[in-house]
Amino acid sequence: MKNYGFVKCAIANFNGKIGNPAENAKKIKAQILTAEERHAKILVFPELCLTGYTCQDLFETTHLMEECMTQINQIRKFTLTKSILVLIGAPLNVNDDMYNCAIAIKHGKILGVVPKRFIPNYKEFYEARWFSHTSLTEIELFGKKIPFGNLIFSSISGYRLGVEICEDLWAPIPPSSELALAGANILANLSASNELVGKNEYRKQLVKSQSASTISAYLYTSAGFSESTADLVFGGSGYAYENGKELAHLERFEITDQMEIFDVDVEYLTNERRRNKTFADSKHSIDLKKYRIIPVEEINLQSSYAEPDNNSVEDGFVLTRKIDPHPFIPNIMNESGGNVCKEILSIQSTALARRLYSIGCKTVTIGVSGGLDSTLALLVCYEAFLKLNLETSGIIGITMPGFGTTNRTYNNSLKLCEELGTTLKVIPIKDVCTQSFKDLEHDPSVHDITYENVQARARTSILMNMANKMGGILVGTGDLSELMLGWCTYNGDHMSMYNVNCSIPKTLVKYLIEWYARFGGEHESLNNILLDIIDTPISPELLPSDGTKIVQKTESTVGPYELIDFFIYYWLRNGFDGRKTVFLAKHAFKNKYDEGHLISYYNDFIKRAFNNQFKRNCVPDGPKVGSISVSPRGDLRMPSDASFVSWQI
Asked: What gap in Å lies between CA 76 and CA 124, rounded to an integer?
């Protein structure tokens, strides 16, 4: 069973008993069994969960320490037939010193022990009364030498686990920062953090930020209801973040036992670190030699990591995390999504305004087709002119009806320019194209690539020449999805003087227009036009039509744009291979597409992406809006002659 780089992890807490390791061990075993049944590979419990964090001077009693050792051994034996790695919090008495520890147990073995590095000694948290610092690198437990201190637990399944305890995260330079630089891609924090008004949000942001800055999965779980409330209340908070994105959380103030199981994508984290040179350069600031790698034994390796069948990506691995089928699209109906849409449009319009300002230009020319891309670009021009306090009449919107133009798109382009107060010019291209067919000795009844590209280049020539005539620049409208597919005519719609849509994928173009119609526009008539444009099938309108029906639909040729953008995100942004990308697509789109179609669409996408790099190597300037851009000047440096064959499934 191939795991596609995913590691199933769990965070848990439980309603235990203070100073009763035997009862707490029963709870721990029960949750180990549950996590094992749900195929988790790592299970993290809170700080000092075996005894309770609030034992105070009971930590100094022989009875508690002896009972604690007994139960650690019982838990160890319980895991003998289990494949899960368990992290439990417990006090350990070593050479007459007490340490607050995280104990890593798997397959009946204690793999290692990590002591708390920063011992709080202030106000309510006076742990220094009972616990010590240490420089030990090895201790003896149950007659065996056990690694102790700076440890990273490394598994053949791809994860490298680093551990810190509660206060460690609050340090100016947390141990987890160094652990990450030393190779740990999953960081666990066994904590006992009390509740105060406003503290939870700060704590949550701390975990989120640490996950993002270390490009890791950070698993945090804290003591809860079972702790003493003599002076403090413990809410049992728990969070799991992957590179700053939440994977799961535990509910605070719950009386019952809790566990959340989720998938961590260590391949994604590895790829992120590989491309982040700041992360790599930071490794020089620490002593990597002080961290020891502890191998994590795996069982049934052959069956667990067998190669998948060449004709299928189905392999039995159960993915529990939600995969967004539209990774580029924010939820425009909530405040966060609306802010994202507004920010994107602001980036685009500010970029264009800066270009116009730098060259002292007060006019732009733009082709307006009544389709999605040109509509978004026109809105960007409109917003840029408002920023510069320029008359919107300086936006020269040109619609150029051809052989395939329909009444719907033509009328929408006219209405759109009118509503935005731009200068409208209608320049038909049939005559100039007919002359080109004659010059090329091309039969106009043959609707091939020549027939289509003559029209595309005729339009670009008109737009370029009009820009010169009006003393302005031509604003391009092509989007990221079209650039990846090469779905543009070289030196036709492929070219402009500044392209404001160059890093906007097609699915996002649609939602930005919808957001503008619902929340950004001021006039109902404009909004109705925008909503109708959204509902219009995507088409270059280059094949003959009677004007009432769109006969050429782009997605019938290149595939659904929602799949193309999904492939772009996971192949280009995350660096995943085809099998993993299709595996994720199956989960994201459920039963909407069968596996055979997904593979076919993906193989066509890869072929187009590779074969059309030459077009992307000479694209005009344009603003980078999100994390993906195909500009050859900054983001995508790819040979035009690379072979796509081995990249296909």
From this structure: 33
Map tokens 């804290």 to a residue: 222
Secondary structure element (H or E) that encloses residue 530, with its range: helix 524-534
Contact indicator for 341, 521 with CB cutoff of 8 Å: no
- What SS3 class is residue 112? strand
Identify the CA nearest to 5 among candidates 219, 185, 158, 186.
158
Catalytic residues: 47, 116, 166
Which helix (DSSP H) or strand (DSSP E) does residue 414 occupy? helix 407-420
Closest CA to 242 of 7, 568, 13, 36: 7
**How far apart are the C-alpha atoms of 44 and 222, rounded to whole Å?**
10
pLDDT tens digits along 153-209: 999 888 999 999 999 999 999 999 999 999 999 999 999 999 999 999 999 999 999
Tokens of 644: 């796509």
Q: Name 165's Cβ contacts closer than 8 Å, sequence gap at least 6.
A: 47, 89, 100, 101, 102, 114, 115, 116, 117, 189, 190, 191
DSSP state of 194: B
Which among 137, 119, 139, 138 is positioned nearest to 129, based on CA atoms?
A: 119
With beta carbons less than 8 A apart as the criterion, state whether 186 and 160 touch.
Answer: yes
The DSSP call for residue 55 is G
Which residue is listed with tokens 């391949």? Answer: 267
Please state, as a whole number, how many other Cβ atoms lie within 10 Å of the Cβ of residue 589: 18
Nearest-angstrom CA–CA distance, 554 and 613: 20
Nearest to 111 by CA among 139, 74, 61, 146: 146
CB 221 within 8 A of CB 191: yes
151-155 and 160-165: which strand pairing? Answer: antiparallel
- Assign 88 to helix, strand or coil: strand
The pLDDT of residue 312 is 59
Alpha-carbon distance 26 to 78, whole Å? 11
Q: At what angle do helices 449-470 and 430-440 cross, to 10 degrees?
A: 120
Q: What is the DSSP letter of 646?
A: G
Q: Are 294 and 151 a contacting pair, CB within 8 Å? A: yes
Alpha-carbon separation of residue 433 from 365, 396, 441, 473 (angstroms): 21, 22, 12, 24
Helix (H) or strand (E) holding 121: strand 121-122
Backbone angles phi, psi at 91, to 5 degrees: -85, 140
Cα–Cα dist 508/254, whole Å:
40
For 151, the token pair is 């440890």
For the chain, the distance separating the N- and C-terminal CA atoms, rounded to the nearest angstrom, is 18
Instruction: Give the separation between CA 574 and CA 269, rounded to whole angstroms.
Output: 9
Report the pLDDT value the prediction gives residue 523, as an integer from 0 to 100. 79
Cβ burial, residue 445 (10 Å; 0-12/13-18/19+) = exposed
Tell me how far apart the alpha carbons of residues 329 and 310 are, in angstroms, rounded to a whole number. Answer: 33
Residue 303 clears pLDDT 50, i.e. is over it: no
pLDDT at 287 over 90: no
**Nearest partner of 164 among 196, 206, 123, 194, judged by Cα:** 206
Phi, psi of 195 (to 5 degrees): -100, 135
- Count of beta carbons in the 10 Å neighbourhood of residue 297: 13
Smallest CA-to-CA distance from 212 within 627, 630, 570 is with: 627
